Amino acid sequence: MTNSTRTFRQQICVIASVCAMTLLTAPASFGQSVGLPAPRLLTTMPMGGTVGTETEITISGEHIEDADELYFSIPQITATRKLDASGKPEPNKYIVKIAADCPVGLCEARVMTRLGISSSRVFSVGTLSEVIQKNPNTALATAMELPVNSICNSVMTAKSIDYYSFEGKKGHRYVVDCACRGIDSKLEAVLIVADAEGRDLQVERRGGVVDFTAPADGKYVIKVHELTFKGGPAWYYRLALQELATDAVVTRLPSTSSVSSFSWPPQDAPAVALASETEPNGKSAEAQKITLPCDISGSFFPAADVDTFEFTAKKGEVWWIEVASERLGRPTDPAVLVQHVSGTGADEKLTDVAELSDIPSPVKTSSNGYAYDGPPYNAGSSDVMGKVEIQEDGTHRIQLTDLFGGTRSDDRNIYRLIVRKAAPDFAVVGWGLHMELRNGDRNALSKPLALRGGATMALEVVTVRRDGFDGEIELSMDGLPEGVTAQGLTIPAGKSRGIMLVTADQNAPRAIANVSFSGRAVINGQEVIHPCRMAAMAWPIPDAWHEIPSPRLVTDVPVSVSGSEFAPVTIVPAEKKVWEVTAGEKLTIPLTHIRRSEFSAATLQLKTFGEGFEQVPMFDVSLDTDASQAVLDLAALKTAPGDYRIAFYGGAVAKYRHRPDAVTAAEESHKKAEQAAADLAAELQKLTEQANAAAEEKKAESSMALEELTARHKAAVAAVAAAAEQVKAATEQAKPRDIVDIVVSEPITIRVNPAEAK
Amino acid sequence: MASINKRGFLCRRLCGWLVCITGLVLPVSGLPCISGAVYADEKHQPSDEGPPKSGSESAVSFVNDVVPVLTKFGCNTGVCHAKAGNGQNGFQLSLLGFEPQEDYEHLVKEGRGRRLFPASPENSLLLMKASGSIPHGGGKRLAPGDEGYQVLISWIQQGLRYDGDTAPALKSIDVRPARSSVPMNTEFQLSAIALYSDGTERDVTRLALYESNDKAMAEASGTGLVKILDVPGKVAVMVRYQGRVAVCNISVPLGAPVDVVPPSRNFIDDLVFANLKEIGVPPSPVCDDATFLRRVSLDIAGRLPTEEEAIAFFSSTDVDKRDQVIDTLLRSPEYADYFANKWTALLKNRRDDVSDTTSNFAFHAWVRDSMLSNKPYDQLVRELLAATGTVIGNPAVAWYKRVKEPKQQLEDVAQLFLGVRMQCAQCHHHPFERWSQDDYYSLAAFFSQVGRKPSATRGEDLIFHKRGVAGMANMKTGVVLKPAALGDAIPTIAPDEDPRLRLADWMSSPNNPFFAKSLVNRYWKHFFQRGLIEPEDDIRDTNPPTNPELLAALEKHFISSGFDLKELVRVITRSNSYQLSSAPNQYNIADQQNYSRYYPRRLQAEVLLDSIDYLTGFQTDFGNLPVGTRAIALPDNSYNNSTPFLKVFGRPESESVCECERVQSSSLAQSLHLVNAADIKSRLAKPGGRADQLAKADQPMEKRVAEVYMAAFSREPRADELKVALDYLAEIGVDGEGKPLDPQRASQENFQDLVWALINSKEFLFNH
């Protein structure tokens, strides 16, 4: 049998042929990229530190190779460059000092670069002792020992599982938490507590903690991996292991806030609700009696929880209901039903008065397709905010449910219900304006306020209006760096969107300042000012088809100027003045183009920002000339008399050259290296001749000197080669590349005067 | 495997011989001779009375005489003239005659009246076509002398009378006998009696339709003659007449002496062995430890036992060591992986686009974690049915990404969780079930308030309960129907209430006739290779279980355990019925449904790949997954493309809720793959792999052979096997030029050959 087996196996022809698999890989895209280079701080290691300590961190990012200062958004954290033995700063390394009075939580970290301030990366401050992952720990046998009550800063390896071990004691409670998405990481963490052999005991995949009570003394293993086993520098995490008392409440690691949360809380709302729900209150007969106004906290618990509140009201009363839950960071979708109750018992009749659900996004958000067709920042929420007009005297009920809560039993899904008389107000949030184009490149969404000289950057600002407020909202920015101005294009009455234009003079010096960005309105005769929150993307996304942007709120608004790089083109009105025109007439505004780059197209198509002027037909300006003009037909626009602020904008494809100055510098270095090498060569030649001619007793000495000089010459030759490589690299980098970016003109003020009566 | 057209596929399976709306044609029986028939009951010989008469003796009823003829001869089937199949050449009849009034209109009034010719009935187009007098795509269906032909011609002669309003309504049919014990290799005649609303009865034996639920056991002719073949057990013959069905349950005893059965370990043994005694099939003995360990490891954890596990098990003297192994396996993550693999395929966790990756991983993980934590089955189904939110927040939502439409949702839910196939009832009354279109749309109504909001991921929605009164319009009548669960009325559902939760409540009710039954039958099949009801997802009155008492007891046990899946596995695998040897005795080799022995089954694609990997010391690299990930832990079907082995051995593409999508049959491609495919060769020759290690091991050859046998079969080699192996290993092969190989290389190749030979053995390829 075996002989025949051997024969069979050796002789059998390959009938079952193996097909060569052709991998269909997407061709690399060599088309234009979107957005001029912007500095982006992408990782820090570690990602946090302990209060009252000093720690060394290493950073990485895009266009931060010349970074110097490392800034934090809270003053209790400071950083200095790490110096090497010779006293020179080590690249990308900093010593971070966290003061003893530093608040626990998150802050923003950024670096200042040649191009200005970078985008932010979250930095955590906690009380647990910090450790850093030791490599490799991607196998059970190499599991890293994790001390209890510590937090480990780690980076996930693709296609891997990270292993940690700890000693557990029977009956003791251990809580494993992992910060990842909440600290800007791309990691969707899976946490597993396993036995010493790696057999899974408890698993958590939905962003929660593993709350584990050890069944016996011994070694336990924590496994961490990405939900889809992705990995790399962007998939970092902080893994916390804590021992807690049985009855202790678990406090989660801090997390950034969603964009939607900018509209919470309402002005004057206390930090804690005035009352709380009382279960059972799910059925009509169990409705919790309340009086209006009210402020109640509760939770959507257990699954399919219905909370019912009963109140009396009179016909004609108007109440505003607001529910926060999603904006508190919970994955919920609250819904409110208000009904009038007539009759009792079997004769009870319920009449719908109002049905309230989502807070809609103030502007159309981006669809999930390839083309960019709106901002991927949803300022709306699945929370509730709406009006109830009482139609009849009598008893009413509010029924509050979670449309996402049918099967989930999670008492962390809390809510806050506020019913109030109208308190008109608003909240504003902004982000860097992206351009609408059919391109999957979303890198530019991760856009720091880093201005090139002569550039105007547009921020898109939207508002969520509260309790019927529909007045106009002025936008302003104070505390700007030298040479920077900011002018807001008002959010018009009844509208939701405005634009803030931030302009750097061509000669503005390198600078950074934390500015105060706010919205201002008059409500009931009183001026009301609210800070405008800024939103940003955690990561640049080169291909939106394969990655979903992850927006969040940032806690501060730093504005910076490069001081060494300039906008490809600046478009300004020929005169800095208020442009006056009579209603119904045409206004021609001469424009000046300050061109600093070549462009791939000869013309730039401009549209118009500014209330009442969005309908101005698109017009072309030449990128080959230094001047053009805009003609505004006020008759067609039907512009009413008044003052307006507008700007022109469009997308231009610049032939961008990255650091052409670096080529000159590299060439200079190369020349110097060549000269040094030549000098040494000459010296070597001379010394060689001297050595040959030296007396015998001097031979040894000459030989040593010759040897030393030969080594120096060899190093000099190597330096020449390295310098040549640098020239090559700098030249390559400085080759013109097509990059499309928004070009925004400086703001223009127009005064439309009334036409003379005929 | 060939791709499956879901609806067509299901319809084909559902409708059996029926010519279905998708146009799939299955043979319609003719009218075979009944000579030689043995009548189980003399009273139930087929009637010679001819077709039933209604009203007066001379008046032919359209409803009770004409339409049954059209049905009997296949005129109103999907591929012929049924409207549901678009009706050939414009002549449309209601499917299987469910709508007589419409049929009357079609016959008498349409086609410009030329279908029927009262002045010369035999020249009616209907009869000329049916008799083949003029060309007919459906061929010759009736001859002028046939009774059916005469019925039609009489009706035409009598003036095309429509009596739908006055004719007695058919209330039910009886089959006689309804239950019988019949020896093997005999024939007997069934009678079909129609019972009408006026209290009358008619023998409709010649007009009824017959079908056996197990054609390996019994064949039924078009005249009700049942031929019992040579397989003992239980078989049912379904009788259909004008939308009514009846079943004859037949017990076919072998009649062998059953003096000794293994001791009973639980109620399963009581009922399996009782059945074996009843039909006279003696069971095989309980299997040995090695067979048990390998079998139970493969069935619970989808893997071979390790050598260490095997040695520890054999050396244990604990009397309950088999129970201990079962519990250990149930606690293992591999149990969760293996059953998650089973469920996620049925729940269509399919990757069509790279954007599906996250949701597929999340969904698979949710099922896997549910298995690991032993989430009660009713809770698992509840979370799936009534899922809301985001995929990351609540991965069960991913099911709604795959199954988007309410009709699709109800059909999948009914088939998967209730074992009821509702597809037919979307367009017409189910041909051999009680489900009407109203039942279909009432069930769909539970899903009518599923709201969707777009998410940032293309093709993926957020799911929420959309407030409103749940309802779904009957496609035919237009009447909006409120939710009702397969005939059970559901109290009014408030607009604020998610109707899916009520459906979940109904399912998990202890009195639900389908939910627990469907699951225990499915799991029974997992361990015994054959369901108590076959197919496992086709539970209906006309497809009775082979051991109804056992099915009921399993159902009761499962419900009383709190829908505990692990407990169900435990009680099944602890039974001696499960632990019987697969080796047949002199009586039970033909047994295919009474569980008198273990029925061997080829390892599933994933299990086989993992087993080969284990035996060869190889780790298959599954694209983006960590090295060491086993095939049973793959999250979705996408790996079938990158690992051809899985495709060749029938891993499903997660397109269907039917377990039959997994191909368990053998094929030439499989044989060739195992014999000679490059991926098998690379496994055998892996540096550091088992063959390599054995070749280099500093151990006696006997021990090395024992190791590889233990890894492959969980047992030591027999003496004859050991001798053959040792002899072979002592050989020195030659290279291409005929020169002897160096000893090291020869040893490596010899061990590769040994492992290769074991892989290609039935003992390895099958769970036995």
Overall description:
The complex is a heterodimer of chains A (758) and B (768). By secondary structure, chain A is mainly beta. Chain A folds into five domains: 33-126, Immunoglobulins (Immunoglobulin-like, Sandwich), CATH 2.60.40; 129-244, Jelly Rolls (Sandwich); 259-365 and 379-422, Jelly Rolls (Sandwich); 424-567, Immunoglobulin-like (Sandwich); 660-693 and 703-735. In chain A, the strands form ten sheets. In chain A, strands 31, 33, 34, 35, 36, 38, 39 and 40 form an eight-stranded mixed beta sheet that branches. In chain A, helix 3 (660-693) runs antiparallel to helix 4. Chain A is flat and about 125 Å long. The model of chain A is unreliable at 1-30 (pLDDT under 50). With 768 residues, chain B is α+β, with helices and mostly antiparallel strands. Chain B folds into five domains: 55-157, no CATH class; 170-252, Immunoglobulin-like, CATH 2.60.40; 264-285 and 513-562 and 574-599, no CATH class; 376-509, no CATH class; 603-767, no CATH class. Chain B contains 29 helices and 18 strands. In chain B, a hairpin with a 4-residue loop joins strand 7 (218-220) and strand 8 (225-228). Chain B is globular. The relative contact order of chain B is 0.09. Mean pLDDT of chain B is 88; it is low at 1-57. Classes of the chains: A mainly beta (758), B alpha+beta (768). At the A-B interface, helix 1 and strand 17 of A face helix 11, strand 12, helix 23, helix 27 and helix 28 of B.
